[in-house]
Structure formats: C-alpha cells, structure tokens
Amino acid sequence: MKTAIECIAVSRNFGALAALKDVSFKVMEGEVRALIGPNGAGKTTLFNVINGTIKLSSGKVRHRGDDLTGLRGEHICQKGISRTFQLTSLFPQMTSFENVSLAAQAKLSGRWFPIGGRKVLAEAGRRANEALERLSLKHIADTPASELSHGDQRLLEVAMAVAQRPDVLMLDEPTQGLSIDETHEIIGRLRALLKEQSLTVVLVEHDMDVVFELADRIAVLHRGYLIADGTVGEVRGNALVQEAYLGGVD
Amino acid sequence: MLFLLGAGLAMIFGIMRVVNFAHGAFYMLGAYVGCSIAQVTGSFWLAVTIAPLLVAGVGLAFERSALRLLYKREDSAYLLVTFGLSMVMVELVRLAWGVTPLQLEPPRVLQGASFIGADPVPHYRVFLIICGVAVALLLWSMLERTRLGLLIRATSQNVDMVQALGVNVTIIRFAVFGLGCGLAALGGVLAVPLLTASLGMANLVLVDAFIIVIIGGMGSFVGAILGSLIVAFVEIFGVYYFPDFAMILIYAIMLIVLVVRPGGLLGKES
Amino acid sequence: MNLLYQFIAALLVLLLSSQVLPPFAVTLLTEVCILGLFAMSLDLMVGFAKLVSFGHAAAYGLGAYSCALLLLHTDIPLPLALALAVVFTAVVAVGIAWVCTMATGISFAMLTLAFGQLFYAIVVKWASVTNGSDGLVGISRTAGPFGWQGLASRDGFYLFCGVCLIAAYFACRLLIMSPFGRVLIGIRDNEKKVTALGLNTRYYKISVIVVSYALGGLAGALYVAFAKFASPDLVYWPVSGQVLIMVILGGSGTLLGPVIGAAFYMLVEYQLGVYTDAWALILGSIFILSVIFMPKGIWGLVSRLGGLGRGSAESLEEKVAYEDRH
To answer: Measured between CA atoms, how close is B78 to chain C, in angstroms?
Structure first.
C-alpha cells in the first residue's frame, strides 16, 4: 500500500506554546485515518499544518512523495488535498448546486477564463451533480445555502470537497453541532460514499462513535505529542489513551 | 510635529482596531466649532475644552441613532455609512461656515518662539508636542491599566466572547465612539493655529493618520509614535530638498514599508 | 442567444433616441452615459467582489489626462486616443491593485483613497505636463479613423458614448457569467472559502480592479472628449465619493443600478441645485438612509415593484446562473 500523507517530526510553536511536538505518522492510500485527542491536544493544528493553513515550525509533510512543507493552502489544495471547515464555511447566497459547482470549477483548467468558458462551467456542473448525487443532496440543489439545515450544510461542505476529486479528503469535525439523528444521518452518507469509492480520508473528530464507525486507524494526540497510533482495537485498549481522556476534562 | 496629533488619531485606529472614516470629519468639526467658540468667548482655552465635548455629543447622537443598527450587518454598511456621514458633515460645515478657511490665534502664553541654536522653535509647537504626548500617555495607561481599557481592547478583538461574559457591549461601543470623536475634535481645535480650519482637513488628516498606522503598524502604541516621527522627518526633509515631491516621498516610504513588512514596522500579527 | 438580442435591441433604442430627442436632452444623456459608465466600472469592484474603493477618481483622472494629452499633442484619431488612454490606465492600475490588495476591508479602502490623493497631488504639482490647477483647455475631438468627422458632432458623439456604455455593459455581463466571474462572486460571498478551494484570490482581485479601472479610465477619456477640457477637479476626492454614492444608491452588484444611480445623482444636482445650495447635503443624507434601510438600492426597489424574474429582488447573476443551468 502506498503512503498518501506522511508527517515527519512535525513541530509547531506559537511563541512559547508548543502546540505540536515532533509528530510523525503516516496515512496510507484508501484508509480512513482519524485524529483524536482531548481539547488542546493539537489535532486541529496538525490538521491545518497538513492542509497548508498553518506553517509548521520544523519537520516535513509529504504527499505521495512530494514535499508540501511551506506551500500555501491554495497550492496544497491543487495538489489534491481538499478540506472542510470546523465552523461551516459556505457561500451563503449561492444555491447548493452553485456552491459545489464552484468547488469543482476550482480544480479544472480554464477555471479563470474571463470570457465564455462554457465547457469549463458545464464540466463543473456535471461534477457538481455527481457529488450532490453521491451525498444524496440532489433534492436541495436549488436551495440557497443559507437556508439549509445545519446537517445539510455540513453535508454540502463534504460534497464540495468531494467534487474536487481529491486524492485526500480532510474532514474537520464533520459532526460538529449536529443532533444525534443528524449525526447518524451523516455517518450513513459518509459510509455509503466510502463504499462506492475508496478515498483516503483524514478525519478530526470529537465524537467517538463516529470515529469507531468510520476509521480504519487512529492517531491520538495529547498536549502536542502523538501518544498512540494504531487500529481501533489497539487504541481502545491503550492505557495512555485512557489516561489522557480520563485524566483531563473532555 | 503636527503628526503627533495625527498619532493620537492613529492610535484610535490602531490600538482599538476601530476604524472610522468619519473621524476625519469630527476632527474638522472640532476645528470649526472651536473657532466659533473662541470668537464668541474670546478664550482659546474655553474653545479647547468645550469644542471636543460638543462634537463628541454630536458623534454620540449619531452612533445612538444610526450606527447602532449596523453592527449586526456583515457587509460594508458601517464603512459606507461613516463615509456618508463624513461627506454630509463636510457639507454642513460648508453651509454653516462658508468656504473660507478660519483662523485662530493661540493665547498670549503660547505665542512667540525661542531659539535653539539658529533655528526658531515656536512655543505653540512645543505645546502641541506636550499635548500629544500627554494624551497619548493618558490613552495608553487607560487602555493598558484600567478595567475599562481591558474591556475596550477585548471588545475590539472578540465581541461575542465579551458579550458572553455578560458585559454590555453596546455601552462600550458607545463610549469608545464618543471618546474617539472627542479626541479627534480636540486634535482639530489644537491644530487650527498652525493649519487654519478648512474643509479639506477632514480627508487630509484621515489619510495621514492611516499612513502613520501603516508605517508604524496596527495595534502598536510605540509603532504609532515611530510612524508619526518618520512621517514628520520625511515631511521636513522633503520640503527642504524636494519641495514639490514631499508628499510623494511619504507615499513612497509607505509603499516600501508595505512591501517589506506588511504588518507595519512594529505591527502585531492579528 | 438571449444576450445578443438584448444587445441589438439596446443599440436600436440608442439609435432611435438620437433621432427623437431634442438637442439639450442628447447632450444631457451623453453625460449620463459617461457618468453611468464610470459608476458601472466601480460596481464591478464593489458589487461583485466587495472591494470598496474610495479612490476611483484616480481611474477617471488617469484616463482623462492621458486622453487629453494625446488629443492635444498628437493628431491620432479619437478612438485610438481613447484606446491608448484605457491601456495606460490599465497598466497603472496593475500597480495600484497590487499594492492595495495587500490589505483588505477598510485598509484596502484607505489605500485606494491614498492613491487617489497621490494622483491628485501629481496632477496639481506636475504643472509642466498637466498645467496644474488651470487644467488643459482647448482640446478638440480629433477625427475618427480615415478622417471620418462623425464624432465631432453632438449626435455622433452621443451615439459613440452610448455604444461604449452598452458594449461595456454586455462585456461586464459576459465577464460575470464566465468562470472568472463565478470566482469573483465566490470571493464576495466568502473569500476564505475560495482560498480553501485552491484559488489564489489575490490574482482575481487584481484582475477585476484592473478591468474596473480600465473602464473608469474610458469614462474619463470620453469625458475629456465631451467637455473638451481636463482639470484636477476631475480627480479631486469628492469625485470618488460621488461615484461610490451613485453605485450604492443605484444598487451595487447589478451593473444597471449604478447607471440609474448616476442619472439620479445628476438629476438631483441639476434640478435640486437650482433651488438650494444644500443639494449635496440632501443627497448625502439619502445615501446614508439608503445604506441603512435600502441595501439593494434603487434598482432593488424597482425590480421588486416590477416583479422581475422569480418575483423577488433577484440579483443579476442569480438570474444568469439560473438561465445557464436550465
């Protein structure tokens, strides 16, 4: 199996605060990798270092052998890593279709054409419809994004990322703020998505049920350190992990 | 040394991160109101104390009635309304006071000049410097040392958080706005003996203050001081060596600073 | 294609109006076309990319003065002088845009203001070229290509300005409908997300600013040919304020709204100005009120009353996108 993402001795300091300390781990192609840890563990920081939103202080990040270190967010996205946000970030005045269409367009050559560009727009539309289909969102395609329910908005963000046909899909707390029913709904759709096509997914999550249902392997962070790394079973039984979660307030 | 007044304005911009396009207009209004008060009462000092209060009152009235409605909106409404206010105020001043610039004599005490070496140093300018420094220090100590100052700084950074803590954000915004207007007006009155009160003051001071903040850096007290010193120096030397291009020189420096250090020389990363 | 028919229809209306309207109306409408073009050019930045500029007078001035100098010192045909003025404005705009896009929000606006002031200072101080505060006078409209005199006449020039406005409008509509335009609208709605989707928003912003300034420059150049003189008053900062008011009052993000805004502004200035000196004050107050209570401007009001499209004050690009999809 090939390595999709590799982090080598990644550290990130905010002034005197060390948010990440020498974190090394790999994400293999086609697997669902979860990043978990108590609050302040550094999972969002690591997530953002990988997708280029934050620069790392030392270490390297590789994608299929390419060095991503120091590249800006836009470039990393163009290399095939698409992300969603923890706090829903959409284009509120556009319809769902338009949201996803723009996401798809961003990865097409000719995305910047100032005149015409019918072919580009048509292809973007095709990919958008495809993504909406796969996440069962077709019925709300013409609804302005601001009018969607919270759950549908989270799904729409995933659809946007999927429409970019990424090598690696990065989801930042997809179930954030969702009710129990909505969470089950989103897990169901994500599972269906993953069944259809094997995607490489990096998932940051707080909700353990979601993690245990979807993840193949889990990396556990605590206070900036990587304290455990393995399959669901291995991590569940890990004493260090249990202490981290029980010791602090989660 | 006029730029120390600009620094006062710049600090309002930079430290409180509340930028108000109309501040330039309040500066101007302060100047004109001050002139009128001085004409009526014959006293410079009365003008300097009363004018800022009156103008602050006007500003507060506007905040209460119109600006409040805009805090919730995401778009550029606040920016546009303060801009509109600025234009309206310039028009009002024009209608009330006419187009001719107004003069104001500094009081006896501050007239004249002393000599340092061969250069004359007007007393009024020294007075301005002292005022500028005093106001700056007062403002800084208020912001850094008092509880109110803490609340003000917090509000400018994260409104929701402060509200969640149970603080009445509306009153803080109200107070900050009034303070800003009052300070701007004070600057305006004090500037008149040097500059005369004219309709163009509003915009000029705004751009100057902004340039100071760009060069010195947002959010930094010392940066504002540094910025105003740099601009003052460039102004002086520029006028001496390249009289026609002094202003352009300042813009050039601003550009260089922007390119080399986008946050300003001493700015804090937001 | 729907757009093509609209374009032809607009041209026909223009032609008809020149035949039917009395002379003073033609002159007035010429000025409306020029100001409308100026306002529309600003709308491209403000309404579609949320780049509020307080320095658009610089675009006007760049076009005006470069055209004026060309017409005064050379014999080149008018259309060529206009084209060169546009190119010159666009080139300078690249530099301005590059600097201004280093900042966002109010800082961006202040930078545009600073550039506006800078240009004004240059125009006034560089008297050897621009004749300073006295301005450049005695400009004549040179002949069109091949010595065609049609542009020198009032009607001919009116048609020319009308065509420029109409052509610019449809060019802008095409731009908004294109992939580039989609990205722009995305930037307006949520710039951070556009970056997350893998696009360098700065390039898009610079590009739209350059186009906006270029069209503004065209308006300025046309004005110089219209009024036959150029003065620093054209670049004075209130001009930037006035055009922004036209855009917002008329309805930003609609392209046509600002044209209406320009007409409205002129109406108030000339009609109300006869009765009172305080017309600018009244206009400014209306502006403030409209920002607070009427965010979609006059165009929004009119389209709501007229029941366009799906019966709501739809924005132009929503309608266009709908047409595209179905």
So the answer is: 9
Where do the domains of chain C lie? 2-236
Average pLDDT over residues B31-60: 83
Domain boundary among A110, A128, A163: A163
Same domain, A176 and A156: no
Residues A173 and A243 in one domain: yes
Q: Tell me which H or E stretch contains B157.
A: helix B147-157
User: Between chains, do C180 and A164 touch, taking CB under 8 Å as contact?
Assistant: no
Q: Are residues A119 and A222 in the same domain?
A: no
Query: Residue C106: which H helix or E strand, with range?
Result: helix C105-125
**pLDDT tens digits along A60-69:** 899 988 888 8
The confidence band for C26, taking pLDDT boundaries of 50, 70 and 90, is confident
Domain of A121, in residue numbers: 93-163
Chain C: closest CA distance from residue A175 (Å): 19
Query: Is position A85 within any domain?
Result: no
> In this structure, what token pair is assigned to residue B142?
């208020």
pLDDT of residue B218: 60
C179 Cβ contact partners less than 8 Å away, ≥ 6 residues apart: A105, A110, A111, A112, A113, A114, A117, A120, A121, A124
Report yes or no on A97 lying in a domain.
Answer: yes
Among B9, B28, B63, B91, the strongest candidate for a mutation testing the C interface, having the largest count of C CBs within 10 A, is B91
Q: Which residues pair with A221 in a beta bridge?
A: A226
Phi, psi at residue A87, to the nearest 5°?
-95, 120
Question: What letter would DSSP give residue C268?
Answer: I
A158 and A172: one domain? no
A180-206: per-residue pLDDT in tens? Answer: 888 888 888 888 888 888 789 999 988
State the Cα angle at C94 between B87 and B253, rounded to 5°.
70
Q: Is position A86 within any domain?
A: no
Distance CA A46, CA B248 (A): 46
Whole-model pTM? Answer: 0.85
Asked if C62 and C119 touch (Cβ cutoff 8 Å), the reply is yes
ipTM confidence score: 0.88
d(CA A151, CA A181): 9
Q: What is the pLDDT of residues C306-323, one digit of tens each?
A: 765 433 334 444 545 544
Could you read off the pLDDT of B225-270 as tens digits, one per residue?
677 777 777 776 766 666 666 677 777 777 777 777 665 555 544 3
Q: Report the C-alpha gap between B186 and C46 in whole angstroms.
A: 34
A155 and A188 both lie in a single domain: no
- Nearest CA to C196 out of A76, A4, A97 is that of A76
Rounded Cα gap, residues A199 and A171, in angstroms: 12
Q: What's the longest Cα–Cα distance across chain C?
A: 59
Cα separation, B206 vs B198, in Å, equals 14
What is the number of structural domains in chain A?
2
Q: With contact defined as beta carbons under 8 Å apart, do C235 and C123 qualify?
A: yes
Instruction: Give the residues across from A200 on adjacent strands.
Output: A168
Same domain, A75 and A187: yes
Name the token pair of B57.
Answer: 């009152």
Across chain B, which distance is largest between two alpha carbons, in Å? Answer: 61
* C129 inside 8 A of chain B by CB: no
CB contacts of C316 in chain A (<8 Å) are: none
Last residue of a domain, one of A163, A185, A219: A163
B247 in contact with C at a CB cutoff of 8 Å? yes
C96 φ/ψ angles, rounded to the nearest 5 degrees:
-60, -45
User: Do A99 and A194 belong together in one domain?
Assistant: no
Beta strands in chain B (DSSP E): 113-116, 119-122
**Residues A64, A125 share a domain:** no
Tell the residue number behind the tokens 């001795």, with chain if given.
A9
Residue to substitute from A54, A89, A91, A158, interface C, most C β-carbons within 10 A: A91
How close, in Å, is residue C320 to chain B by CA atoms? 23
| Token representation of residue B121 | 């140093």
